[in-house]
């Protein structure tokens, strides 16, 4: 089926409360003028970050039939974008999507942990399979914890040098992806930064962010979806990285000012209009 705007198959869970995964990815992509077709991998009452016993329905059995139906009716995609996955089978299902749409941009956000800790749902088997999914991707967006997990490097206790950061970006690209973005990296020579590497042009990029002393769930999902939306609508890599960073700064600072419970995530509803403006940006630098 031909389409006017870029179309993304978004393979993620749907956590009803707590503003992460599909509940933030769909509005972000829509507002950026990108059609997002959700493939829910599971529905959960909340995310797993602090609301106690979560009610969850696994939808692994839905993923392949959904792909089959979409192929039957001739739907095409410009991008396949996966995130939080909770079994080896789900990871295999994402590779089926990659195989079905070989020309689509393959984006893998290897959601596995944060703040130096691995999420409880991530078994050693899932971790190994996520590494092989990363090998098939065009773009990956790990946070620093996930980057260290993929590299088999201990999570750094101190800010890292630009030299180390560049070598980690390059080593991650050697696994397979042409574009690597690592989020939330404290740099010894600077501030917390989001870093990118474009293997084809051998270019390294840095976007620094203001530090806010609260951590909200879902910010990795928001970052990756703005990055995807930017790249699909004409941004270069550094501009897409900066758009994602600036948007999160707006969302996080707005939320922090209200002092809401961090488990509820960022106040996306008040920040979203910033994305419609398609602001002109020039705050990135070379790494
Ligand atoms: O934002 C990542 C994420 C996605 N989905 C679920 C989660 C988390 C992080 O905690 O629990 C269910």
A few lines on this structure:
By secondary structure, the chain is an alpha/beta fold. Helices cover 40% and strands 22% of the residues. α1 links the parallel β1 (7-17) and β2.
Describe this structure in words.
The protein is an alpha/beta fold. The chain has one domain (6-286): Ribokinase (UDP-N-acetylmuramoyl-L-alanine:D-glutamate ligase). The protein is built from ten helices and twelve strands. The chain has a ten-stranded mixed beta sheet with strand order 3-2-1-4-5-8-9-10-11-12, with helices on both faces. Strands 6-7 form a two-stranded antiparallel ribbon. The model has no long low-confidence stretch (mean pLDDT 97). 3-hydroxy-5-(hydroxymethyl)-2-methylisonicotinaldehyde is lined by residues 13, 15, 20-21, 44, 47-49, 84, 111, 217-218, 220-221. 3-hydroxy-5-(hydroxymethyl)-2-methylisonicotinaldehyde binds at residues 13, 15, 20-21, 44, 47-49, 84, 111, 217-218, 220-221.
Reconstruct the topology from this structure:
Blueprint: E1 7-17, H1 22-31, E2 35-46, E3 56-58, H2 60-72, E4 79-82, H3 88-100, E5 105-108, E6 113-114, E7 117-118, H4 124-136, E8 139-140, H5 144-151, H6 162-175, E9 179-186, E10 192-198, E11 203-208, H7 219-232, H8 237-258, H9 268-271, H10 273-276, E12 285-286
Parallel strand pairs: 1-2, 1-4, 4-5, 5-8, 8-9
Antiparallel strand pairs: 2-3, 6-7, 9-10, 10-11, 11-12
The structure holds 3-hydroxy-5-(hydroxymethyl)-2-methylisonicotinaldehyde.
Residues 13, 15, 20-21, 44, 47-49, 84, 111, 217-218, 220-221 line the site of 3-hydroxy-5-(hydroxymethyl)-2-methylisonicotinaldehyde.
């Amino acid at each position: 089926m031909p389409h006017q705007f870029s179309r993304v198959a978004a393979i993620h869970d749907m956590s009803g409360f707590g503003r992460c995964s599909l509940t933030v990815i769909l509005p972000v992509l829509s507002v950026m003028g990108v059609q997002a077709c959700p493939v829910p991998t599971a529905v959960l009452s909340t995310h797993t970050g602090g609301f106690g016993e979560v009610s969850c329905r696994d939808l692994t059995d839905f993923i392949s039939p959904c792909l089959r139906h979409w192929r039957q009716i001739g739907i095409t995609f410009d991008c396949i974008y996966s995130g939080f996955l909770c079994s080896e089978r789900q990871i295999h299902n994402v590779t089926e999507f990659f195989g079905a749409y070989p020309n689509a941009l393959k984006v893998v956000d290897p959601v596995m942990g944060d703040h130096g800790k691995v999420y409880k749902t991530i078994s050693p088997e899932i971790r190994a399979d996520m590494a092989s999914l990363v090998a098939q991707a065009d773009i990956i967006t790990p946070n620093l914890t996930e980057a260290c997990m993929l590299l088999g490097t201990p999570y750094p206790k101190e800010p890292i040098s630009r030299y180390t950061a560049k070598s980690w970006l390059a080593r991650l690209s050697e696994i397979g992806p042409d574009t690597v973005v690592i989020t939330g990296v404290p740099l010894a020579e600077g501030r917390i930064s989001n870093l990118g590497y474009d293997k084809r042009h051998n270019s390294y990029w840095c976007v620094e962010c203001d530090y806010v002393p609260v951590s909200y769930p879902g910010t990795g999902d928001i970052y990756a979806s703005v990055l995807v939306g930017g790249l699909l609508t004409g941004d270069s890599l550094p501009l897409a990285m900066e758009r994602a960073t600036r948007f999160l700064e707006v969302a996080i600072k707005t939320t922090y000012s209200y002092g809401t419970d961090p488990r509820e995530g960022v106040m996306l509803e008040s920040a979203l209009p910033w994305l419609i403006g398609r602001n002109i940006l020039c705050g990135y630098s070379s790494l």
